[in-house]
Amino acid sequence: MTFRITPHRQFEIGQQRTSSQAGRLAELRNQISSGRRIHRPSDDPYAQQLILTNESTASHFAAQGRAIGSVRSVLNEAHVQIRAAQQLAVNARDVGLQVRSINNSSEAEIFSLELDGILETLDSIANTKHEGRYLFAGAQVETQPYSDVTQETAYSGVADAGSVQIAGAGHIKTYYSGEAVFTTGPGGTTHLLGTTGATGGIGTASGHGSSQLHVQHTATSYAGTSGIQPGASSASRDTIIGAAGTHQLQIDSASGTISLNGGPSFAFSNSDKDLQITGPRGEVVFVDASSIAPGFSGSVDITADGTLSLDGGQTRLPIDFSQNQTLVDESGNVRHVDSQGITQVGVDTVQLKGNSDLFETLRSMRDDLLHYEDFTAEEWDAVVTDFLGDMDSANNHLLNVVGEQSVDLQTLDRLQDRGDELQLESQKRLAELQGTDFTSAVLQLQEEQNLTEYTFATLSGVFQVSVLDFLRYTIR
To answer: For residue 36, what is the DSSP state?
Structure first.
C-alpha cells in the first residue's frame, strides 16, 4: 500500500509548525522585553527550586537587616543620652574641684545653682523617649522611670533590661534599666557625715542613695548621790547623748556653781528647777538643782539616752551605744550605724561607700552648698572629697555602660555588613537564574524568525501546485 501526503495534510503540518514557532517567538520576545527568563515553574522546574531557595535567603537577610536597623536606632539614641550624662558627670566633678576652695555662702550658692541645672538636664535624659518608649525604664517601656530627680530618686521602671535576640549576636540590650545606668553597685558600707559622733557600722548596706540619720534625745539621768535631777525641759531640750561617763557635771556647792564637761560655770540655787547648763561645744542640759545634797562637790557621770531614725523620727530605734545597730529606712534600704561615739543630737548624712546614686550624690552636694556655713573647714573638705570620689565612680560606671553599648553597636554593624553581603549574593544568584541571557535570546529569536520565514515559504509552495502536478500526484 502506498501512502501519500495530500496538500491538505501538508497545510495542517505547516500550520502546526507555524503556531509552535509563533509561541516560541512570543516567549523569546517576552524574555527580552521583561528581562526575566522564567515566568512560571514549568519554564524550568530545577531553576525554579533554586529561585525559591535564594528568594527565601534574600528575604531572611532583608528581615534581619530591618530588625538590626530598628535595634540600632534605639541603641544609638540610648548611647547618645548616656554619653551626655557622662559628660554632665565630668562637669559636676569640675564643680566639686572648684567648691573645695570657696570662702563664703554666696559663692556656694552659685555653684549650688550650677549643680541644680545639671540635675534638671539629667532629669530630661533619664526620662528620654524614643519612638514613644522610655529608654531607661528597663523592659517596662511604657512607664516613666523617674518623676523628678532634682528632688528625689524614685525609680518606677524595672530592673530587667529590654532586649532583642539577634541571630549571631544573642540578646542585645536596647531599653536599659535606669538603676543599672545611674547607680553603681548593689550595696556598700555605711558612711556618715555630721556632728553627732555616729559612724558607719559593720556589714553590707543595701539599696542606693543617701539618707538622713536623725539622732534625738529621750532622757537624761545622773549617777551617784549628788541629788541633782533632770530639769523640766530636759527630755525635750537636752542636746547631749552618751553612755554613762561620756558627759559629766562638775558641782561646786562651796561656790554655788555647776559646769558641764569642763565648760563655763553657772550659778545655781535650790530654787532652780529647770536651769540651762551649756558645755564648751555648745551642748546643753537642763537640770533641777533644788535637790542637790547640801555641801556636795564633785563630778557626776551623766547617761543621756536617745533614738536613731532614718525617716525623720516616724520610726525610732533606741541607741544602745554598740558597735553595730541596723536600721531600715522607708524604702527598705539597710544601714549599719556604730553608736558608741554618739555625743549629741543632730542630723547626719548617711551615704554608701562603694555604692553611688548619681542623682542623690548631686542633690546632696547641692544641698550641702546651701548650708555651707554649717560646716567646719575640716568637715567641708571631707564632704568635697567624698563627692569627688562618688563622681569618679559614677563617671567610670557610665563609661563602662557606654563601652558595653559600643561593643553591641559594633556587633550589629558587623552582622549588618555580613547580612548585606549574603543578601546581595542571593539577589545576584536570583538575577542569574531568572534573568534573560540577552545574547542567547536574540540569537534564538533570529533562528526562530528564520525558521518561521522558511515555513511560510514552504506553505506558499504547497498552494502553488498546478493541475497537471495534482493529477500526477493523484495517479501515483
So the answer is: B
Give the least confident one: 154-163, 297-306, 406-415, 446-455.
Answer: 446-455
What is the C-alpha separation between 70 and 62, in angstroms, rounded? 13
Give me the long-range contacts of 315-318 (CB less than 8 A, separation at least 24).
316/216, 318/218
Spatial distance between the Cα atoms of 175 and 46, rounded to a whole number of angstroms: 47
Instruction: Grade residue 323 by pLDDT with cuts at 50, 70 and 90.
Output: very high
The string over 390-403, giving b where at least 16 C-beta atoms fall within 10 Å of a residue's C-beta and e elsewhere, is: bbebbbebbeebbe
Domain locations along the chain: 45-185+355-435, 189-351
Beta bridge partners of 337: 200, 325
130 three-state secondary structure:
strand
Which pairing describes strands 129-130 and 133-134: parallel, antiparallel, or unpaired? antiparallel
Please provide residue 153's backbone torsions phi and psi, each rounded to the nearest 5 degrees: -110, 100
Three-state SS at 332:
coil
Task: State which amino acid sits at residue 146.
Answer: Y
> How far is 87 from 94, CA to CA, in rounded Å?
11
The pLDDT of residue 190: 80
Alpha-carbon distance 163 to 467, whole Å?
Answer: 92
Residue 166 and residue 415 in contact, taking contact as beta carbons nearer than 8 Å: yes
Report the alpha-carbon distance of residue 460 to residue 446 in Å, rounded: 21
Q: Distances in Å between the alpha carbon of 474 and those of 10, 64, 208, 465, 466?
A: 15, 76, 115, 12, 12
- DSSP classification of residue 435: B
Q: Domain 45-185+355-435 maps to which CATH number in 1.10.10.10, 1.20.1330.10, 3.40.50.200, 3.40.50.10490?
A: 1.20.1330.10
Helix (H) or strand (E) holding 469: helix 467-475
- DSSP single-letter state for residue 148: -
The pLDDT tens digits of the residues spanning 57-92 come to: 666 666 666 767 777 888 889 899 999 999 999 999
**pTM, to two decimals:** 0.55
User: Model confidence over 181-214: pLDDT tens digits?
Assistant: 888 765 567 888 788 999 988 877 776 556 789 9
